[in-house]
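Before going further, learn to read the protein records used in this course. The integers have meaning only within a learned vocabulary of local backbone shapes. The record below shows the convention in full.
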Amino acid sequence: MMLCRCGAVLLAILVFATPTMALEDEYAEEPRDALGELPRDFYFTQDLVKMIVGRMSDQLGNQLDMDIEQRDLTRERLEQTLSRYLVDNREGLQPVINDFMNMWAGDEAPSAENVAEWAGRAKPMLHEFSKEMLSTADSFGEFLTDDQKMVLDGHMAAFEVGTRFAGEKLQIWEEGGYDRELDWHRSPKHAEYIREEGRLRYQEEETARAIAEGREPPQFDEQGRMQPATPQRLVDSGPASAANPPVARDPAAARALQQARNRQRGDGATAVKSASDEWTRYVEDFIRRYQLNDGQTNKARDFLRVAQEQRSRWESTYSGRVTKLEKLATSARTDGGKATAKAQLERLRAPLERYFTMLKSKLQKLPTRKQRAAALQRTPEKAETARE
């Protein structure tokens, strides 16, 4: 309603003022350069900081079941930390924010060189922010209960995973690894890529959260959804912050992404193909070693097919990224850049090892005791290795 009224007033001004302006044109002052009067740089205002802090403290208060006094102390300390950080780092942070907004709003993807220069300035800002937030969270221990501290530890463990992901991406970009097809938000392939990357980050965050809270690490299904945990949570912190998010894949986007990745697979695809061949050899050797019957053999090959489908989904998402990271791991300008690329490679490939481990675990349930004993007598060393 208020918007309609404002629009009507504006329309009236335009309609009735236009003739007068035309008659008095020769007496009119030079038109104001209103755009030039706007501030050239965006930055945080007091009201915006209060709004951000209010939302953060409310969410944290609900998740930790804080009382009124605890909520007030949380809000006060977060406000002090964020305000101090923004004031102390304004000289470096403000250009980083504005350059990001300019690149984001541009009609064309920024160059890898421009992104590398920007990432080099943004990386220390992120590091300093993470350090300030972790220090502030530690100070909450002065007024939290032991159970609340444990839940907070879980939140901060997840926060560290998130900032590590962001920091590693900035490191890769700084080394020239910005990919317009995948990293630019207007690219058709970006949405699917960022969804898969977010799913990987979510799994690591929830695993870190569980370990910090003293719970068993969660299990995830083939779509990346977290399975219900058997142990009860130590504290009822309200609805889980990332419980089973929708991860439906767009088939058309997935196919487009696969085609783009197929053009740039290189060594990454070769490594995946080698892994697949290794899995096939392992299963066929297992079938021969234990002389599985037809029913057992069919099950073993079904297990292999499922594992290979998981591998194919991984390949369609990450093979191109693996190729880039493999190159950066050897050609990055700094040792830190090489180490970061290698660490990200290990994390990207971790699901492949998990799929293979799950495949071997399923196979071990197939042979009977009689088949195991017979295999042990034929090739003791191989049978023992298979059991491991």
Q: What stands out?
A: Residues 280 and 305 are 9 Å apart (CA to CA). The chain has two domains: 46-212, 251-387.
